[in-house]
Design brief:
Layout: E1 2-3, E2 36-37, H1 39-47, H2 49-57, H3 66-81, H4 91-96, H5 98-105, H6 109-112, H7 127-141, E3 154-162, E4 168-178, E5 184-190, H8 200-218, E6 224-229, E7 235-239, H9 243-266, H10 298-303
Parallel strand pairs: 1-7, 2-4, 5-6
Antiparallel strand pairs: 3-4, 4-5, 6-7
Helix pairs in contact: 1-2, 3-5, 3-7, 8-9
Length: 315
């Protein structure tokens, strides 16, 4: 297991009644409630402002992928695992949860269509082989944690805070553990392999986002951020943020938000071509690939809460 800092949340987790720290700080009554910023949307804008626009404002449809659906399936199993009494959280019980979780997902025709061969494309795996691959990811989880010794305070938990300048931060935490001494551990499951050291900072961006929101709402700096990678050779990345670091990270998010506001007010979301473009569904509309974006959806932007921003027409 890779650990940037030692694991500080080794005591048996407690209930919310044991959480230390004062109540969430009051937000200024006059602070405007703007559209929210999530870790994924912030990452989108950093990667490519035009992608942010397509996903957040235009809300263009995107194809599902077998990898993404498998991630959803594994997350559902690990969430439901903690519905069981602690002694029953075994590898066998987890495997038994796959079928009902898949039944829920397969109710979406767009999911089942992924297993239909398409002419000119690589044949998809059989459903049996695909489900088996999901089962292996679930099995690898037990090599990294003992769920019988963990009692999460929250799973798929919404965390949000409005900063004094009106910026609303929102996100969903895969799992939140609270020790008896009030220490917080934020856990996120990843079905891919652990990134190389050069990309650890990018991987931790999402976790620092959650740590910031929890600090602003609970007054407690998370003792540990834990990314659990189930793919490849299963491993975990842990990190202990500091208060000063979260202050700087908050400024980073505010800078990203200011850039988003400028892009909305000028209706200017420029593409940023990278290797990630190979997986983008919107190449046909992207100037980097000879495409033309649709007209800026002013009505959709207004419906999303951007109506208070002055719109500056481009030449």
């Amino acid at each position: 297991m890779t650990a940037l800092h030692p694991d500080p949340v080794s005591a048996p987790p407690a209930t919310s009644a044991d959480v230390a720290g004062g109540p969430a700080p009051e937000q200024p009554a006059s602070a405007p409630r703007r559209p929210s910023l999530s870790p994924s949307r912030a990452a989108d804008f950093k990667t490519c402002p035009l992608l942010y626009r397509f996903r957040t404002i235009d809300r263009l449809p995107e194809r599902k992928s077998l990898a993404a659906v498998r991630g959803t399936l594994v997350h559902a199993v690990l969430e439901k695992l903690y519905d069981l009494p602690a002694p029953e959280r075994t590898p066998e019980s987890a495997q038994a949860l796959l079928a009902p979780a898949w039944e829920e997902l397969s109710a979406d025709p767009a999911v089942t269509e992924l297993f239909t061969p398409v002419e000119g494309e690589e044949a998809p795996p059989s459903l049996e082989a695909w489900l088996a691959s999901a089962g292996k990811l679930v099995e690898s989880y037990f090599s990294l944690e003992d769920p019988t010794r963990i009692q999460p305070e929250g799973r798929e938990q919404l965390v949000e805070v409005t900063l004094p300048d009106g910026l609303l931060l929102r996100g969903f935490v895969d799992r939140l553990d609270v020790a008896r001494n009030g220490a917080l551990r934020v856990v996120d499951y990843k079905t891919g392999a652990m990134p190389r050291e050069a990309f650890e900072g990018k991987a931790l961006f999402q976790m620092k986002f959650y740590a910031l929101v929890l600090w602003r709402t609970r007054g407690v700096v998370a003792s540990q951020l834990k990314l659990i990678y189930l793919g490849g050779s299963a491993d975990a990345l842990t990190y202990a943020p500091e208060e000063g670091e979260l202050v700087r990270f908050e400024r980073t998010l505010q800078a990203i938000w200011s850039a988003i506001e400028r892009a909305v007010s000028t209706q200017d979301f420029r593409p940023n071509r990278t290797r990630l473009c190979d997986w983008c569904d919107h190449q046909a509309l992207c100037p980097s690939f000879g495409g033309t974006p649709p007209p800026f959806p002013a009505e959709a932007a207004a419906a999303a809460g951007w109506a208070t921003l002055p719109v500056v027409e481009r030449d």
